[in-house]
Specification:
Largest sheet of chain B: 8 strands, mixed
Shape of chain A: globular
CATH architecture of chain A: 2-Layer Sandwich
Shape of chain B: globular
CATH topology of the domain at 209-382 in chain B: Dimethylsulfoxide Reductase, domain 2
Number of domains of chain A: 1
Distance between the termini of chain A: 24 Å
CATH architecture of the domain at 209-382 in chain B: 3-Layer(aba) Sandwich
Distance between the termini of chain B: 53 Å
Structural class of chain B: alpha/beta
Number of strands of chain A: 6
Strand content of chain B: 15-25%
Number of strands of chain B: 28
Strand order of the largest sheet of chain A: 1-6
Strand content of chain A: 15-25%
Largest interface: A-B, 51 and 56 residues
Order of helices and strands of chain A: EHEEHEEHHEH
CATH topology of chain A: Alpha-Beta Plaits
CATH class of chain A: Alpha Beta
CATH superfamily of the domain at 209-382 in chain B: Dimethylsulfoxide Reductase, domain 2
CATH class of the domain at 209-382 in chain B: Alpha Beta
Number of helices of chain A: 5
Radius of gyration of chain B: 26 Å
Oligomer: heterodimer
Helix content of chain A: 10-25%
C-alpha cells in the first residue's frame, strides 16, 4: 500500500527529499507549495537539547480525513492506496486542509492553479496534472523521495526489510 | 565583428534544436516565476518532434563536490530529466546528496555565461558596469593569449597568477607559462589535516576514505559531515548508528551529528586540542592503547609518553569548560570501544579554523594511531587507487621553465612542507598582490573562483584593481566577472568529459567516467580546450604538442586500466572496478615507514614535533564578546549554489545562529535582522535563536551575500561570512611556526547588534 516510512533517527535534515520532489513533480517555485517538507523540532534548554527531524508530506492515510471533508468529491483513494486530488473538480474551499492532521494540503498563492489544492501524489501526478494536449498524466506509483533519500531515513512503504534490520539493531 | 549586447542573457546563438528547447525552457521560466518547471517532455513536443523519444540513462559522475559520486542521468531527447546515484559506485552507494540532485538546476540556470565577452568600460570596481560586448571565441583567445604573452615578455612569467584549484590542466598551464603562481584556496579548507598526515604518516597526501559503518565509537571534534550531507560519510555514519555505534560530539554548536550523538559536549571554541591532549594522557597512563599496533606500526611513543604528562584532565578542564572526569571518561570509552575513530574531513575543528588547528589535527592522528584506527577497518583508510600514467610522461612534455620554482606571491616556499604539496594560500596571495611582495602581479586567469570564496573580500577587490588584466573562465556570472576584462564561458560537469578515480570511499580501486549527458549548451567550451588553445596561441607549442587534449588524456588513463572511453560508455554500469580484498597497510610513507607520533619531518623543518598546547589567536574582548563559528548548510555548495531557485525556496537566506538567552539579553528577536561585526568587517543577516549553541558563540552559514546583479536569484540574499574573517598574514603564520599556513577561518570574535 502507498505510504511512507520515516525513520526520524536517521534523518539529517538535508532536504534532498524536498528537492527531488520538486524536480520530479515540476512544482513551480514561489507559489507557496512544498509537497514535502522536513520539519525540525528543537526541545530542551542549553546544554540539554534535543533535535528531531521529520520529513512530512501527505501520508496517504488508510482512511483519509481529507477525502471525507471534501464537499465535491475531488479527493479519492486509489486501490493501491495513493490519495489523489482532481484539480478540475477542486473548488479550493480548504476543508481538506482543516481536516488533515499533517497539514499536507497546500494552496498555491499565485499562478494557474491559484487556490486549488496540491499535495504529494506519490509521484503519480505532477503539479500540472495534464500534458500540453490536455491528456491526464498518470505515472507509476514510485515516489522520488522514497528512493532518493541519502541516508534511507525516508522510504516508501513496502520495503519492510530495512525497517526490520533497524528494529533488530536498535532492539526496538 | 563585435556586437553590443544590453544584457549577457541576450542573443543565444546555438543550433536550432537546442535553441527551441532553451527558449521554451525560458518561456516556462517566466511563466512560473523563476524556474523552468514545465514538463520537459511537453517542451520537446512543442519543439516539433515527430515521434515519442526514447528515455535513456547516461552514466557520468557528479561535479558539485570533490567526492565525484557516480551518477545516472535520466535523459530524454537531449533533455536532462533527473539525476540519481549509481549503486555500483562505492562512494554514491546508489544515492546522491541534496546538492547532487539539484545539479540539474545549474545546467539549466538561465543566468549562465553563454558566450565569450570583453569589457569596454575601463573602470573596475564593485557596482561598476563592465559594459560587456559579445565576441567570438577566436577574438577571445587572441585577446587573452596576446595579453598574457605581452605581460610575460615584459614583466616575466611570475607576473601572471593562475587562480584555480590545482587540477591537472590548470597546473600544466601555469607551469607551461613558467609562473610559480598557481593560486588556490587550500589553506582555507583542509590544509592542516594534509600537512599533519604528510609529516606523520603518509609522506604525501592525506587519506580520504573513512569506514564509519564498521566503527563502534565515533568521536567528533566539530566534524559534522552528516549535517553537511556529504553523501558517503553521512550514509556511513547513519549505518554506524544503526549498528549501535556510540557517538560523542564536541562542538560549540548542537550540530546534526550532535543531535544523533549519545553525548554532546559544548566545548569552548578552539580548545579541542587541550581535550585531546588530556585524552592522550589518560590513554597512555592507563595503558588503554592498542599495544600491538603502537609497537608494530608507530615510532616515538616514548617521547609522547614524556611529553603528555603535563597535560592532565584537570589541566584541560580549566581550558575547555569540560569537567576533568568527563574528559577521562570519554578517553577511556574511546580507547576501549573498538574499532574507534576520530572523525575528520575538512573544516572541522582540526581544519584551518584556529591558530592551533594543525596541532589538533596532529593530536587526532595520535589518537587514531593509539587505537589502531589507521588503515584498519572501522577507521581512517587510504584510498586504494589504480595505477595511472603520469601526465607529463604520457604527453612527452619537456621539463618546465626554471621560473616555476621561483618565489611565490603567496609566500608558500617559506613553508617547506606545505610547498611540497603543490597547494596554495588565498589570504597571503591577496597580501602579496597588495604589497607587491616579492614582486608585482600584472595579470590573473581565474578558473571558477568566486570573489566570495576569499576571506576579507574588500581587500581582494582592492588587490584585483591593481591588475592590468583579468580573464575569467566560469559558468555563472558571479562577482569576479565585475573585475574581469574577458569572460570565457565554461561547461558544467553535465556537459563535460573526464575520468574520476574513487577517493572518498575506495576500499578497492574504482574509476568512473564523466561524459556529456546532453549536448553542451550555448557557446561554451571545456576547460582543457580553453587552456590548450590559450597556451598554443601564446606560442607554447612544446608544452602543448599536437594531440594534447582532454580527450586523449582521458583515453590514456583508461587504456592503462585495460579499457577505453567508448567501452566505458557502453558498460552497463559506467564504472571500472578491481574488486580485490582490502589488505591493511603494513608500512607508511614516513622516513621510518612507521606512523611517527613524534614527527621527524616537523622537527627537521623547525616545527613542534609533538602537538604542544597553544591557544587560539583571537579571544573574546569587551568590544567583540562572542566567538564566531562558520558552517555550511547541507544544500549549499560553498558560494556556488545560491542561484538555485529550489534551494532558495527551501532556505531563502543565511542566518546568524545565536543562543536564545544571549539574544534576549541583547534585545534581539528571532528572525530579526542584526549586524554581525568583527575587526575585519560587518554583515547584516537574520538572527535565528536556538538553545543549541553556547551562549558565547555566534554561528553564520557560509556562501551567501552575493552582489552580482547578473545572479537573478542569489543577488542581495544574506550576508557573506568571509567579510568577517581577517586575512592571515605571512609574518603572522611564520611567527606562529604553523607549517600549514592555516587561514584561521573562524579564529575571530564578533559583536552583534540591531
Amino acid at each position: 500500500m502507498a505510504g511512507f516510512i520515516v525513520i526520524k533517527e536517521d534523518c539529517i535534515n538535508c532536504k534532498a527529499c524536498e528537492v527531488t520532489c520538486k524536480i520530479r513533480n515540476e512544482v513551480p517555485i514561489g507559489v507557496g507549495v512544498r509537497r514535502r517538507q522536513v520539519i525540525e523540532i528543537e526541545e530542551g534548554e542549553f546544554p540539554n537539547v534535543t533535535k528531531k527531524f521529520v520529513s512530512m508530506a501527505c501520508m496517504h492515510c488508510e482512511k483519509p480525513f481529507c477525502e471525507i471533508a471534501c464537499p465535491v468529491k475531488a479527493i479519492s483513494k486509489r486501490a493501491d492506496g495513493v490519495v489523489l486530488n482532481d484539480k478540475d473538480r477542486c473548488i479550493g474551499c480548504g476543508y481538506c486542509g482543516w481536516a488533515c492532521p499533517f497539514g499536507a494540503p497546500q494552496y498555491p498563492e499565485t499562478g494557474d492553479f491559484k487556490g486549488i489544492m496540491d499535495k504529494c501524489t506519490y509521484c503519480v501526478i505532477p503539479f500540472h496534472q495534464k500534458d500540453e494536449a490536455g491528456n491526464p498524466i498518470i505515472r507509476p506509483a514510485e515516489p522520488a523521495c522514497g528512493t532518493d533519500c541519502t541516508t534511507g531515513a525516508l522510504q516508501k512503504q513496502g520495503d519492510g526489510g530495512l525497517m526490520k534490520k533497524v528494529a533488530a539493531a536498535r532492539k526496538m | 565583428m563585435a556586437e553590443e549586447v544590453k544584457s549577457i542573457f541576450d542573443g543565444i546563438e546555438v543550433s536550432r534544436r537546442t535553441f527551441t528547447k532553451a527558449t521554451a525552457a525560458l518561456g516556462a521560466f517566466v511563466a512560473f516565476g523563476g524556474y523552468p518547471t514545465k514538463h520537459f517532455d511537453r517542451l520537446i513536443e512543442t519543439a516539433g518532434a515527430q515521434e515519442e523519444p526514447e528515455e535513456k540513462i547516461v552514466h557520468t559522475f557528479c561535479g558539485i563536490c570533490s567526492a565525484n559520486c557516480a551518477v545516472k542521468a535520466r535523459v530524454k531527447d537531449d533533455m536532462l530529466l533527473e539525476l540519481s546515484g549509481n549503486s555500483e559506485d562505492q562512494i554514491s552507494g546508489g544515492v546522491l546528496c541534496v546538492k547532487g540532485y539539484a545539479g540539474r538546476n545549474l545546467l539549466y540556470d538561465p543566468d549562465r555565461l553563454k558566450y565569450p565577452m570583453k569589457r569596454t568600460n575601463p573602470n573596475k570596481g564593485v557596482g561598476e558596469d563592465p559594459k560587456w560586448v559579445r565576441i567570438t571565441w577566436d577574438e577571445a583567445f587572441e585577446l587573452v593569449a596576446g595579453k598574457l604573452k605581452e605581460i610575460k615578455d615584459r614583466d616575466g612569467p611570475q607576473a601572471i597568477a593562475v587562480v584555480s584549484r590545482p587540477k591537472t590542466w590548470q597546473k600544466h598551464f601555469a607551469k607551461s607559462i613558467g609562473t610559480p603562481n598557481l593560486i588556490a584556496h587550500n589553506n582555507t579548507c583542509y590544509i592542516t589535516h594534509e600537512i599533519v598526515w604528510r609529516a606523520t604518516v603518509t609522506g604525501k597526501g592525506r587519506p580520504w576514505t573513512t569506514d564509519y559503518s564498521k566503527s563502534k565509537f565515533i568521536l567528533s571534534f566539530g566534524w559534522d559531515q552528516p549535517g553537511k550531507a556529504k553523501n558517503v560519510q553521512a550514509r556511513d555514519f547513519i549505518e554506524a548508528k544503526r549498528n549501535g555505534a556510540k557517538v560523542v560530539v564536541l562542538d560549540p554548536r548542537f550540530s546534526v551529528t550532535a543531535s544523533k550523538a549519545d553525548e554532546w559536549i559544548p566545548i569552548k571554541p578552539g580548545t579541542d586540542l587541550a581535550f585531546t591532549l588530556a585524552m592522550i594522557n589518560v590513554i597512555v597512563n592507563e595503558e588503554l592503547y592498542d599495544k600491538e599496533f603502537v609497537e608494530e606500526y608507530t615510532l616515538g611513543f616514548d617521547k609522547l609518553d614524556d611529553f603528555i604528562q603535563e597535560y592532565t584532565p584537570e589541566w584541560a578542564s580549566g581550558i575547555t569548560d569540560v569537567p576533568a572526569d568527563t574528559i577521562a571518561r570519554v578517553a577511556r570509552e574511546f580507547a576501549t570501544t573498538r574499532p574507534a575513530v576520530v572523525a575528520t574531513h575538512k573544516r572541522d575543528a582540526g581544519g584551518p579554523n584556529y591558530a592551533n588547528s594543525w596541532r589538533l589535527s596532529h593530536a587526532e592522528v595520535i589518537l587514531n594511531a593509539l587505537v589502531g584506527a589507521i588503515d584498519r577497518e572501522g577507521g581512517v583508510i587510504f584510498e586504494r587507487t589504480p595505477k595511472l600514467p603520469k601526465f607529463g610522461e604520457y604527453f612527452e612534455i619537456p621539463s618546465y621553465p626554471e621560473s616555476v620554482k621561483g618565489e611565490r606571491i603567496d609566500g608558500l616556499e617559506k613553508f617547506p612542507i606545505l610547498y611540497k604539496t603543490g597547494k596554495a594560500s588565498f589570504p597571503t596571495f591577496v597580501e602579496g598582490v597588495l604589497e607587491e611582495r616579492p614582486y608585482p602581479i600584472k595579470a590573473a586567469l581565474f578558473w571558477k573562483y568566486n570573489v566570495l570564496a576569499f576571506t576579507y573580500t574588500s581587500k581582494l577587490i582592492e588587490a584585483l584593481k591593481k591588475l592590468e588584466f583579468i580573464a575569467v573562465i566560469d559558468i555563472l556570472p558571479t562577482e569576479i566577472i565585475e573585475m574581469a576584462d574577458v569572460i570565457l564561458p565554461d561547461r558544467t560537469y553535465l556537459e563535460g568529459s573526464g575520468v574520476g578515480v574513487r577517493k572518498y570511499f575506495a576500499k578497492y580501486p574504482q574509476v568512473a567516467i564523466k561524459q556529456p549527458v546532453v549536448k553542451p549548451l550555448y557557446e561554451t567550451k571545456g576547460t582543457s580546450t580553453i587552456l590548450i588553445e590559450i597556451g598554443k596561441r601564446m606560442g607554447l607549442y612544446e608544452y602543448f604538442p599536437e594531440g594534447t587534449s582532454g580527450k586523449s588524456w582521458n583515453e590514456a588513463q583508461l587504456n592503462a586500466l585495460g579499457t577505453s572511453f567508448d567501452e566505458m560508455k557502453k558498460s552497463p554500469t559506467g564504472i571500472w572496478s578491481d574488486k580485490k580484498p582490502f589488505v591493511p597497510k603494513e608500512e607508511f610513507g614516513t622516513p621510518s615507514k612507521k606512523i611517527e607520533l613524534h614527527s621527524q619531518v616537523f622537527e627537521e623543518n623547525g616545527y613542534d614535533p609533538l602537538p604542544a598546547w597553544a591557544p587560539k589567536r583571537d579571544l573574546p574582548s569587551n568590544e567583540y564578546p562572542y566567538y564566531l563559528i562558520v558552517t555550511r548548510k547541507p544544500f549549499e555548495k560553498m558560494t556556488q549554489s545560491q542561484n538555485d531557485p529550489i534551494l532558495r525556496e527551501i532556505y531563502p537566506e543565511n542566518r546568524a545562529l545565536m543562543n536564545r538567552t544571549t539574544a534576549q539579553s541583547l534585545g534581539i528577536r528571532n528572525g530579526e535582522y542584526v549586524y554581525v561585526e568583527s575587526r575585519a568587517g560587518k554583515i547584516r543577516v537574520k538572527a535565528e535563536l536556538t538553545e543549541g549553541i553556547r551562549p558565547d558563540c555566534v554561528c553564520v552559514d557560509h556562501g551567501f551575500g552575493h552582489w552580482s546583479k547578473e545572479l537573478s536569484v542569489a543577488y542581495g540574499v544574506g550576508g557573506n561570512d568571509g567579510d568577517l574573517i581577517p586575512l592571515v598574514t605571512l609574518d603572522e603564520a611564520l611567527e606562529r611556526k604553523d607549517p600549514s599556513l592555516g587561514a584561521c577561518m573562524s579564529d575571530v570574535c564578533v559583536k552583534v547588534y540591531t
